[in-house]
Amino acid sequence: MNFGTLPKRALTMVTTLAAVATLAFAPQAVLAQDVAADVTAPLPPVAAAPVLDPAPAADAAVIAAPAEGAYKPLGTDMIKGQPVDKGITFQEQYTEDGAFALWMHDAILLPVITVISLFVLGLLLWVVVKFNRRSNKVASKTTHNTFIEVVWTVIPVLILVVIAVPSITLLARQYESPPADAVTIKATGYQWYWGYTYPDNGGFEIVSNMLTKEDAIANGEPALLAVDNRMVVPANTPIRLQTTAADVIHAFAVPSLWFKLDAVPGRLNERLLTIKEPGIYYGQCSELCGARHGYMPIAVEALPRAEWEAWVREQGGIVAGDAVEETAAPAAAEETAPQATVS
Ligand SMILES: [Cu+2]
Q1: Ligand 1 centre and the CA of 235: distance in Å?
Q2: Distance from the CA of 86 to the center of ligand 1, in angstroms?
Q3: What's the CA-to-centroid distance between 140 and ligand 1, angstroms?
Q4: All residues at 6 or more sequence positions from 35 whose CB lies less than 8 Å from its CB, including other chains
Q5: Cα gap 81→250, rounded to integer Å
Q6: In degrees rounded to 5, what are phi and psi of residue 251?
Q7: Model pLDDT for residues 167-201, shown as the tens digit of each residue
Q8: Which of 54-58, 101-105, 323-327, 332-336 is the least confident region?
Q9: 52-91+180-343, superfamily in CATH?
Q10: What are the residue boundaries of the structural domains of the chain, listed by start?
């Protein structure tokens, strides 16, 4: 091999690979921009839930309106987003953010990682076979090649841009503030269980402890994930999920909802959660919080809005409509009373 052909061959190869990489990634970039554009689209309208004054809410809880349909806990056929045997990607996702993240992983990150790994492996093999001492008695002294250096700087930059567009989009979506009419639910981490408070619905708290392995299996639920009282939430409704802790730092994490938020004592963290469909979704505390850290699972039960409201009333809580009716009635009576005396 003489001195001039090596850089020329390398140039041809690098140019070809650059063209292949561009062709391979171009559709991804276009897709990424499409999805990014969707982010600005407003959330689907949700029935307005006026913010309530907590004091009348507590009174109204005593005379709660009759339930439109009794609450029935979801059966084990509604368990969703569980890991599957020999699965190599994320769990199935049940939020918009999760679906977007899963798409980004499957359609962008994995192909990029695969192509780069194969490319580097190919280069290594090429060097091992072609440039060993046996086939190159006289070692090449080539050091610089401006074109190759430009190419191996520009192509990685382009790859990073292709990754950055959906990545920053996902980050921004995860910071989206809940709308004013979102249902507020506060998850409090305790050593070692969870408490779920519903401040918009009368402020009752549900305490959720892990079931024993025997009880979980008898229920048809996964051991170490099943709980006695699930965190019951409305599906297809924006939830303002707040997390805090009573003792040490915990973390509220449900993989199939693409949700993870630290629960820190003395601090209230908040993130928007909108679950796409009814189901049971399991998660775990994801901050090492002590001896029984592994035994404080999270079970989220998402119900259609009407059934969730029935559940709230069953817990002695109230939903927005109840309180409005209760507070409106006495106000109307006061207004009509003086008029009656005047006439
Ligand atoms: Cu914990």
Answers
A1: 25
A2: 28
A3: 60
A4: 100, 103, 166, 169
A5: 22
A6: -145, 130
A7: 999 999 999 999 999 999 999 999 999 999 999 99
A8: 54-58
A9: Cupredoxins -  blue copper proteins (2.60.40.420)
A10: 5-41+95-174, 52-91+180-343
